[in-house]
Every structure is written in C-alpha cells, then in structure tokens.
C-alpha cells in the first residue's frame, strides 16, 4: 500500500513537471490551472491502473499449487469507473498441494483455502468438502476425525453442485 501511494505521488509530480516544462517552452501560453489538473489526472490514472492490475499481479506471484476458485468483483459509488467495469477486490484460491484425503473416505477432501483481499492480510483456512454429497464443513474446534477417516462433530452446509469452491477443491490434481 505504501509503494502504491508513493507511485501515485510520483505520477502526479512527473505529470506536473512535464506540463510545467511544456508551458515554459511555449513561454507561458498554457493556462495556469493545467499543471495541477495534469497532476490530479495522472494520480487518478495511476490509482485506477493499480486497482485493475492488482488481481493479475497477485495471481502471477502466487505459489505453485494454488488454483483460483472464486473472484469477487466490486463497484463503488465513489469510484464511478467501476460501474462501467468492476474490478476484482477479493478472491479465494485452493491449495491443491496440501489437499488431504483418507483411503477409506475417497469423497472427502480437507483443503486449505487461501483468502486474498486488496488492502487486507492473506488468510489460510482449512475446509472440509464432501465431493459426493456437495457439502462443506468448517474445520473448527470440536471437529475430530475418527476411525477410518470419519469426520465427527462437523456442521455440514449444503452447496450447489456448480459451486466454484466445491468444483476446484474436488477436481483431480
């Protein structure tokens, strides 16, 4: 976040300096308001560019084995350009390398979901998926694993068969 702020300030300063130099070359023929207007426009352009490129930059630097399962796009009243084209502000990735199964429970998968968000910390959360029954359970205190890989004390939530987290977690590696 700090580097984006610095980049935005530098973009504004460079734009202002370029317009100032152009005005000086033209011996003051440009209107005086053009220098701060150019700085503001450059800072706005840098901010918008940073918003729209965040998702691509983040996915490009993810560790191997993570697969993006779901993206959340955002629009905001104070960002009118997002109404024309929403930007990805959060997404969830499935850590396929850490997927755990039990030979006696082939339809159950214990996976780590990694939650990414713009301006937020990355969070890693373990989650159980019943691929055959289209169910999901949070791995919280009290959930235990019994003989034969049976899951005990889990609260299961029904999912649609097309749920992107379910499909990604249950996909074969």
TrEMBL record:
Query: In its keyword annotation, does this UniProt entry include Membrane?
Result: yes
Q: Keywords in alphabetical order, please.
A: Membrane, Transmembrane, Transmembrane helix
Q: Which residues cross the membrane?
A: 6-22, 34-55
| Protein's recorded name | Uncharacterized protein
């Amino acid at each position: 976040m700090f580097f984006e702020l610095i980049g935005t300030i530098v973009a504004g300063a460079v734009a202002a300096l370029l317009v100032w130099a152009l005005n000086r070359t033209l011996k003051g023929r440009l209107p005086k308001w053009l220098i701060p207007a150019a700085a503001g426009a450059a800072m706005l352009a840098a901010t918008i560019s940073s918003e729209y490129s965040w998702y691509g930059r983040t996915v490009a630097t993810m560790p191997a084995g993570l697969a993006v399962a779901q993206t959340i796009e955002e629009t905001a009243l104070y960002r009118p350009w997002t109404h024309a084209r929403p930007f990805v502000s959060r997404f969830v990735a499935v850590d396929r390398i850490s997927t755990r199964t039990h030979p006696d429970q082939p339809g159950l998968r214990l996976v780590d979901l990694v939650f990414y968000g713009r301006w937020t910390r990355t969070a890693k959360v373990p989650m159980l998926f019943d691929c055959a029954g289209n169910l999901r359970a949070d791995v919280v205190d009290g959930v235990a694993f019994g003989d034969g890989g049976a899951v005990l004390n889990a609260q299961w939530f029904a999912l649609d068969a097309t749920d992107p987290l379910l499909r990604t977690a249950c996909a074969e590696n």
